[in-house]
Amino acid sequence: MRRIALILLFNFILLNFNAQEVAVLKYSGGGDWYSNPTSLPNLISFCNERINTKLNVKPETVEVGSSDIFQYPLVHMTGHGNVYFSVEDAENLRNYLISGGFLHIDDNYGMEPFITRELKKVFPNKDLVELPANHIIFNIAFPFKNGLPKIHEHDGKRPQAFGIYHEGRLVLLFTYESDLGDGWEDPTVHNDSEDVREKALKMGANIIKYAFEN
Known about the structure:
Layout: H1 2-17, E1 22-26, H2 39-50, E2 60-63, E3 74-79, H3 87-98, E4 102-107, H4 112-122, E5 129-130, E6 160-166, E7 169-176, H5 180-184, H6 187-190, H7 194-213
Parallel strand pairs: 1-2, 1-3, 3-4, 4-7
Antiparallel strand pairs: 5-6, 6-7
Helix pairs in contact: 2-7, 3-4
């Protein structure tokens, strides 16, 4: 028990040494973890400009089972298809999250059944719970009075933001039927209007600000 506590303390220290960096999460299972290559760089540039972050505009890639994950207070995960976490991956991700890390999972369409299944390996006794529209993450930098914005239609369902809490802290955010990442991409990729892209980027900035400050 003491050994586990020391490991978690050490990991927490590592997280705080690199207080403002984000990374893309690489996972197994065949899903396209690398989709939306312009998304995160564009969001980072927006955040550096609008909420005064000082992030590297070329985010690193980190594997879910690597100890390198502890270098980043925020890790972003996306894709369309299958996700698979080994026992070691799940344990590493759980330790990362409970020691101060934050994971944002953005369903790029078709990811939901797979990530829901795999998160049960990470937190067997926890469920994804929907965040209310008045949650601070929707207002911390830019206001979204109705909660998560709708960026792409997909199945026409309402956008939903789900979270997992550990000891009262939101450690994981899963954005579903919104597709923020598509809205962060270069304008020519999806031909979204400026208004749609602005909404997506502002919500992304809220997520980054929340992860760094909570």
